[in-house]
Specification:
The complex is a heterodimer of chains A (about 350) and B (about 240). Chain A is α/β, with parallel strands linked by helices and about 350 residues long. Chain A has helices at about 45-50, 70, 80-85, 105-115, 120-135, 150-160, 180-195, 205-215, 230-235, 240-245, 275-280, 315-325, and strands at about 1-15, 15-30, 35, 60-65, 65-70, 90-95, 165-170, 200-205, 215-220, 225-230, 260-265, 285-295, 300-310, 330. Chain A is elongated and about 75 Å long. Chain B is elongated, with a radius of gyration of 21 Å. Classes of the chains: A alpha/beta (about 350), B mainly alpha (about 240).
């Protein structure tokens, strides 16, 4: 649905050059929620603004719903008719909501429809329908200043949906909200994604956002995508930074001659009593340093950090046993197998 | 001078002032608003970035503003005659008043429009809006309270300038104060004129502030509601700001 290839953005100011995007290849499938996570300054904002060409990429192409937007852009800083038409089919929500304070909630939602040249009757019907969808039908005549942050973002979402977009871009939509409100907004995005088949590309610096709504995720660092894939794939990738951040377990090694391993349980394996089987079969004492169970991307997943006596060399057999049970094992403090290097990682 | 002598003079002067200031304000707003918006839009990094146009408009505005009004009036005489067919009287005074006020108002518009959050512009761009849509639906409506304050300031400044319009025989309150009060030592008449001017300016300022603050309050961007004890105003149904959680 959204594909960028070799996307590069260089800002020039007073002879200095700052590379915000450095050859970003992103592929968002139709109907999925795709999260791009990174710290501030990683280039997330530039990336999302390049998708609807609010920022002109220095190089590379952006394709949304099969149309190459970079080709529509034309010359000069102003957006031509075709690009504007393409933008009207891409919804966007913002961190600071960006609602017009001089208009009522309903008039804010009608704004994109005014731009599309719809009639007054149609505009108001559509706006009320959308406000109902986001649960704000009773606030249609209120002004944005009278709403709470979460309500404002709901209006922002209703507005973004006014042009019946296939794609929704979310620029840190929950970063200005408290955790409770964040959850309800994310739930709304998830519902819209499922009900309307909306493809959502969101950028965030909060791991919880990725964890609760995203089907796929990418990690950005210094203008590059360092890791990407579906959340399930990422969690199954040993050594994945995203997986570790999505689902952290804690606990420290207690001595030199010990081996600490992280055991990740997916689906079927989560129901097997593997740890006690391991203890009985090999007659070893296992101490559990930390464990957690969570739902990531709608799937239940468990992770446990356990300590086995003896060095890694002494534990090859028990670890092999665990792998045979279909568990994912990460041995702490050891280099990862080369077959599982991170995608696109550069040193 | 008795009151019966003063009354018709003052009445005429009030109308003359109102007439001159009214028309010149109208022209100043019509001319200054687009000019001010252009000053913002042509600036570096803005929607219609055009450094040359920006510099030219900026310089024209600066030069016009730096001319003392009386000099401007004389300098514009040919132009005034071309427009109104005369260089004396009320109509002739409106031309230099309006020309002097356009750049003044344009600078005020520029300041107001610059304060509009860039995020709003971005949001409308993302909806597929063009520059004209952005001006019409974002820049002007969002800066409206501030534009109204700017208009008030312009009206008050024009009342001040209109005192000099007496030099081209346009009359007005300021002209009465100078000719009768100052030049003929009719101190009483001068004080009455000054008092009328003070009242007029206070009323205009009050009305302007009230309108601007009313809009502000509606959109919840500023603190307390304007205090009005003389008139009982019904609270708009939407003004329950306390509800915001």
């Amino acid at each position: 649905m959204i594909t960028t290839s070799g996307l590069t953005k260089v800002y020039r100011s007073r002879g200095r050059e700052v590379t915000a995007l450095d050859g970003v290849d992103l592929h968002v499938r139709e109907g999925e929620v795709y999260g791009v996570i990174g710290q501030s300054g990683a280039g997330k904002s530039s990336l999302i603004r390049c998708v609807n060409l609010l920022e002109r990429p220095t190089a590379g192409t952006v394709t949304v719903a099969g149309r190459d937007l970079t080709a529509l852009a034309g010359r000069g800083p102003r957006a031509g008719r075709e690009l504007r038409a393409a933008r009207s089919r891409i919804g966007m929500v913002f961190q600071h909501f960006n609602l017009l304070s001089s208009r009522t909630v309903q008039d804010n939602v009608e704004l994109p429809l005014e731009i599309l040249g719809r009639s007054g009757k149609e505009r108001s019907r559509k706006a009320l329908e959308l406000l109902d969808l986001v649960g704000l039908a009773d606030q249609a005549k209120a002004y944005p200043a009278q709403l709470s942050g979460g309500q404002k973002q709901r209006v922002g979402i209703a507005r973004a949906l006014a042009g019946d977009p296939k794609v929704l871009l979310s620029d840190e939509a929950t970063s200005a909200l408290d955790p409770e409100t964040t959850r309800s907004i994310l739930q709304l995005l998830r519902d819209l994604n499922q009900q309307l088949g909306l493809t959502v590309l969101l950028i965030t610096h909060e791991m919880d956002v990725v964890k609760s709504v995203c089907d796929s995720a990418a990690l950005m660092e210094q203008g590059r995508i360092v890791e990407s894939g579906t959340v399930t794939e990422l969690l199954a990738t040993p050594g994945s930074e995203l997986a570790a951040a999505l689902f952290p377990v804690s606990g420290n090694i207690s001595g030199d001659d010990r081996t600490v391993i992280d055991v990740t349980f997916h689906g079927e394996a989560a129901t097997q009593p593997v740890i006690s089987q391991l203890a009985r079969t090999y007659n070893i004492d296992i101490s559990i340093l930390g464990a957690a169970i969570d739902t990531v991307a709608g799937k239940q997943i468990g992770r446990m950090r356990v300590e086995l006596p003896g060095r890694y060399e002494d534990n090859v057999v028990p670890i092999g046993f665990l792998r045979e049970q279909g568990l994912q094992i990460d041995v702490l403090g050891r280099e990862q197998e080369p077959a599982l290097v991170k995608e696109g990682a550069v040193e | 001078m008795t009151w019966s002598e003063m009354q018709p003079l003052l009445e005429q002067a009030c109308w003359d002032t109102l007439y001159m200031v009214g028309w010149s304000t109208l022209i100043a707003v019509v001319g200054g608003l687009p000019l001010g918006v252009l000053l913002v839009l042509t600036d570096r990094g803005e929607l219609l970035q055009n450094v040359v146009a920006n510099k030219v408009i900026g310089q024209v505005v600066n030069v016009t503003r730096s001319l003392p009004f009386i000099i401007l009036m004389v300098a514009l005489m040919t132009f005034t005659r071309w427009i109104t067919g005369t260089t004396i009287g009320r109509e002739a005074a409106i031309v230099p008043l309006a020309i002097g006020a356009i750049p003044f108002f344009a600078r005020l518009v520029e300041t107001s429009v610059r304060e509009v959050d860039h995020g709003l512009v971005e949001a409308v761009q993302a909806m597929g809006g063009n520059t004209w849509t952005i001006v019409r639906k974002v820049l002007v409506p969002e800066s409206l309270p501030s534009l109204i304050s700017g208009t008030t300031t312009t009206i008050v400044a024009l009342i001040g300038y209109s005192a000099m319009a007496g030099t081209v025989g346009a009359g007005g309150l300021g002209d009465i104060a100078i000719r009768y009060g100052y030049q003929r030592f009719e101190t009483e008449l001068m004080w009455i004129t000054v008092a009328i001017l003070a009242v007029v300016i206070s009323l205009i300022q009050f009305a302007g502030d009230y309108a601007a603050r009313g809009l502000h309050r509606r959109s919840g961007r500023s603190g307390p509601a304007p205090k009005l004890r003389l008139l009982k105003v019904r609270e708009p149904a939407t003004a329950d700001t306390g509800k915001a959680a």
